[in-house]
Amino acid sequence: MSLVYIFTFSKVETEQVARLMGATAAVKPGARVGPVRLGANDFLLFASDMGPKIARSLADSVLNNSNPAHGATVAGPRPDAVLIAGLCGGLTANLQQNTIVTYRECQSTDGNGTAYGCSPSLTGRISRMVISTGVSCESVVGITSPKIATNKDLRLELARSGAQTVDMESYEILAVAHKMGIPVAILRVVADHLEMRLPDLNRAINEAGSLDQGRALRVAIGSPLLTARLVAANKRAMRHLGRALEVVLPSDCFADLPLTEREVSSNNVPQG
Asked: What's the whole-number mean pLDDT along residues 195-219?
């Protein structure tokens, strides 16, 4: 039996994963769901707001038990593995909406020059499990940014790093797990493709690096069509990912990882 921590960073991500875990009530940011047993695994879901600062704080608290500000979320038992599940943006033309991806490694825009690799064994097992259902699953390099890539120019700029997808949290979780020697898999789905324009939600990002709901509402009112398209795209993408998670979560993907896997998963990979 494996203990797996799952991290989600938006309402639509959390709703989908919590539903698969049997939650019947709404799960707010900062809440924990579980432990819940699904098939061969016990899962704890940690729901959070978006943004790298919040993700790093949560990871320090939950994985490293070093952040008293989040003392209420400290999980206790060390997990056998970590799964980050949710949305991402596509940075290349071949990654269309609803494409499911696993990360080989993740970079950051903070300029520190280090990328961290995900667990090869765990990632490979998850990818093969998804593909066995008849759904394609692409292996990618991701990048974490504190800003939302709202248009093609911004996405192409991020792609110059060699990344194919972008999100706002994965690197921070991976960096802490690297220090702790905990295998990590990142399973995401492309919600917005290279050509897609988004409302300028960067104007709604607060000092904590997350969305201020009041500001976000004003942005949404000012860009109703773009907002409606984004919300619909996010929901469609998460339903697509949800079908993959239905197969992955109760499987034996997380069991009996090689003893050396913790060393492999914590090797840092220099950026190209």
From this structure: 87
